[in-house]
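Hi P.,

Sorry for the delay on this. The queue was packed all week, but I finally got your sequence through. Input first:
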Amino acid sequence: MGRSRCAPAGGEPTGGRWGTSGSASVTVSGDGFAARNLTFANLFDPAAHPEITNRQAVAVLTRADRLVFDNVRFLGRQDTLYVNTPEVTVASRAYFRKCRIDGDVDFVFGRGTAVFDRCELRSLSRGSTSSNNGYVTAASTDRAVPYGFLIRRSRLTGTAEPDTVSLGRPWHPGNDPAAAPCTVIRDSWLGAHVRASTPWSDFGTWSWRDARYAEYANTGPGAAINPDRPQLTAEEAARLTPRTWLAGADGWDPLR
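Then the structure:
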């Protein structure tokens, strides 16, 4: 959809900063929005601007309920897709079907409730062969909200080097203790870029072990079962379906 209105560290006319939200190429604020067969991109190139240290560059920011993205591409680097809500304790819902999301650092993030169904989440290399090439997710789900991100029947691919990418880290905006980040990855294929032994990472002083993280029935070279990879039970997996995740009080079902 074109470039964002400014570089990530660019200033407002009043002298302030746009910040992460202000860097978005597209912001969706209307309930019931749907997009199909489109590409949304933030084309900021961090390699071309080494002088810029704050490199957030959002392609799409959502802060509305009952959203559907069908066969849509989200292209960016850091903070590509910001799934947010208008208020901290509001469970704004979004359904992503057969979408592709490219990025490197926290490129699917926010406090919204979302299902990624048969999607491709593509981790781009940051050039590191032995350390950190980024994080797929950075949920910041509020403790009062039951569900955060569900990634189901999807493929985690990318150009990042083997064993250098984390599945996620728990974002606590403003060090908010009420955040209880929630991410479940199930029935998906994980590439070799995913850290097989310890795929979840701490975020500053916030431990991933205190977040609501789980996997179930994943396959591929980046998949494993060990004490650092919490797994759903069969009973939990049967209950945590896309329909359950998105139903809410009104019974919304975008899968119909």
